[in-house]
Amino acid sequence: MIKVEKLYKSFGKLDVLKDISTEIKKGEVVAIIGPSGSGKSTFLRCLNLLEVPTAGKIYIDGQDITAKDTDIMTIRQNVGMVFQHFHLFPHMTVLENMTYAPIKVKGVAKERAKASAMELLKRVGLAEKADVYPTKLSGGQKQRVAIARSLAMEPEALLFDEPTSALDPEMVKEVLDVMKSLAHTGITMAIVTHEMGFAREVADRILFLDQGRLLEDKTPSEFFSAPSSERAKQFLEKML
Amino acid sequence: MELNFDRIVPSIPYILEGIKVTLQYTLLSALLGFIWGTVLSLFKISSVKPLKWFGIAYTSIFRGTPLILQLTIVYFATPQLTGYQITALEAGVLAFSLNSAAYISETIRAGILAVDKGQREAAMALGVPYRRMMIDIILPQALKNILPALVNESIALLKESALVSTIGAADVLRRATIVGAEKYVYFEPLIVAGIIYYVLVMALTFGARLLERRLRRSD
């Protein structure tokens, strides 16, 4: 579904990503981990072109999204993103947040958009919050709404950029639970996270990045029991 | 010192008539100035270099010269340059909106830049095109934050509209001076004009407060 070939990204003189190649299959859940500053978020943001790669190619469903003539808006409708700081639209209610893009971008009929938004809100356990404004929600609730908002576009893949890093510890679980239940629905997920337990339990594969390089690309059991690089070993010793 | 309001009482309705004229100039200029100012602010944050330069040069010129000069140029030079006999209303509204847009564009630009960058990214990630994103996501948040500054600008515009009395429009100030000249008393009609302007500004302030409260619903 997502194929990355020799991806490079630099900000001025700073090389953030170096020669990254990997593939994420349809329905796969991939956790991207690594020390801070390793380029994991930049890598994720390249996948929907929030960052434009310096070199290399990214294919989504066989289409080269780095090509000049690609309609990136259509790609983005199909690859949702969940941010560390939620970024809900503060001037819209929860329901409006969720129906805005389906109605205005995809052209879904209002009533239908509302109905499916309510379904999704039920799924994340927030049906009673449909008409409140985001400021009235806790961090965990905001993130669950943000996930539901992305799902409202019915994307094939969802990118998560440290979805629990800005949350109070007691709210982390409610968000991870929602993500776990999502993982079983067959949607493709790429998750940048520091939650090792979650990555081990839910991910099909672990990508380990350090200083812009992809050092490990393994199943969780291989990675956590026998990382091949010295850097991953050190990292795991500190984290676990 | 002797004040004699009795002598101008019959003329007060005549001065009050000027409110319509004053409001006409103010509201039209505020509306057009706001629209043009929004467009200019988008020029200024645009990545298209010529648009950006145009926006910057425009602001620099209209902020760098007196409003009364701009007004007189528009009123007296338009017939000379184009042969078109511009009316006082057209000249006034044109000059005021062009001038006000220069100030408003800076305010709106600041408002847009103050909206969290994440809002833009969230909209982009949902596949929302630039235009829609600006209209539905960014500008509503920007406007809410700069509403007090926009109210300031409208108040300034309301008071500056008195400049049209110099090109012969019968606004509140002009009528007050006419009454003064007719009755040989100046203090009383000018005080009446002052009170009218003050009441109008207060009404505007009050209306803005109601609007702001409504916009703060989501806080």
UniProtKB/TrEMBL annotation, chain B:
It comes from Tumebacillus lipolyticus. The keyword Cell membrane applies. PROSITE patterns: ABC_TM1. NCBIfam families: HEQRo_perm_3TM (TIGR01726). This is Amino acid ABC transporter permease. Residues 19-208 form the ABC transmembrane type-1 domain. It is a multi-pass membrane protein. It is found in: Cell membrane. Pfam families: BPD_transp_1 (PF00528). Keywords: Amino-acid transport, Cell membrane, Membrane, Transmembrane, Transmembrane helix, Transport. The chain crosses the membrane at residues 23-43, 55-77, 190-211. Belongs to the binding-protein-dependent transport system permease family. HisMQ subfamily. Its main location: membrane. InterPro entries: AA_ABC_transptr_permease_3TM, ArtM/GltK/GlnP/TcyL/YhdX-like, MetI-like, MetI-like_sf. It comes from the Bacteria.
